[in-house]
Amino acid sequence: MTLKIKEVTKRFGSTTAVDHLSIEIPEKEMFGFLGGNGAGKTTTFRMILGLLDITDGDISWNGESIGYDKSHLIGYLPEERGLYPKLKVRDQLIYLGKLRGMSKSEVVTELEGWLDRFKVPEYIDKKVEELSKGNQQKIQFISAVIHKPKLLILDEPFSGLDPINVEMLKEAVVNLKEQGTSIVFSSHQMDHVEELCEHLCILHKGKPVVQGSLREIKKSFGKKNLIVHADFPVDFLKDFAGVLHYKSVTEGCELQIESETVAQRLFEALHGKGFVRKFELEEPTLSDIFIEKVGASYE
Ligand SMILES: Nc1ncnc2c1ncn2[C@@H]1O[C@H](COP(=O)(O)OP(=O)(O)OP(=O)(O)O)[C@@H](O)[C@H]1O
After folding, report:
1. What CATH class is the domain 223-282?
2. Residue located nearest, by CA, to atom 10 of ligand 1
3. Which segments does the entry list as coiled coil (predicted)?
């Protein structure tokens, strides 16, 4: 089971929201779909769901064209949450589950399982409007997964959740992946993507600017974060050529450097000045990569 997005373009009049995007997402994969505001993420999701026509290109699921008729295979947690406030959780989910071909008893069994898992079994008889925003989000998540979709699209799944609920939802998402669900997920919180995704794509103005495995992407960026802890003042390092950012910390400094060769020069400059307790080159974070690739041309 593979989702294939092939050379997909979407135009709204003179605006090109998605521009020649190609992605493949296999089974048991959690794929990170990143981009700044207006990059084209939601537009892509809506094309996958068949809610928007594709201007050019093709999206297929397991070799077959995808569209509205495949909606029972897909689960979607939209960024703008949309539950009926006056309905009880049970009735809401029965309604949504039936739309996806489930019987009432199947929905109730699944729903009870999920509510137990989220430690809120009593919510079954509550109206949505009686729940806090974060708890409404749990219900919306359940509504996206209750029919056991093969492909799950999560738009900013963790926004608005407290750290305990973030962990609970992460665990649920990882379990679904392990059971075989393909998951595409967008987030502005890079640490979540870094923790959960093996592959990712960063979109900028509709075009993919970084794409591939997280490990390879990091490797190709080189180690540009340097940590220096020393028993003597190290602020003279900030004046060296190739030092892009300098931050003083209690034990020394943290630097961003142009390339690994700059680190070699700094290492030599520290020689004989005193005791150096730490000199460590670190891989860039996903946030560093995002800022370098997208930030440079950000409006
Ligand atoms: N129905 C529409 N009509 C015209 N333009 C649209 C429409 N939907 C989206 N756009 C434009 O397409 C571009 C991509 O928007 P999209 O909502 O896909 O971005 P996004 O990456 O989801 O952003 P965000 O992170 O802010 O949710 C934007 O320039 C947006 O204004």
Report:
1. alpha beta
2. 17
3. none
